[in-house]
Amino acid sequence: MLKRVLYPNDNGGISILIPSENCGLTILQMAQKDVPAGVPYKIVDMSEIPTDRTFRDAWEYDFSNPDGYGIGHDAWFAQQEKTDD
Q: I need a labelling partner for 26 at 20 to 30 A (CA). Which of 41, 53, 67, 71 fits?
């Protein structure tokens, strides 16, 4: 998969979610589930992520126009249980 999910973390940096290819979820579903509740995320091409990790703690990204907001694990699994009923 050539996409990654970026979201701001509690340390003032950026977390990068590398989706699993064989879990049966879309990248959007993974982002909603794995990004903490209320946190904005962007789905980007892997090519947008710097390959030089020397200054990774200084990376910045504009989350003012997010692709969505995480709902977190608990809410996502609860939502799936309701869908299965």
A: 53
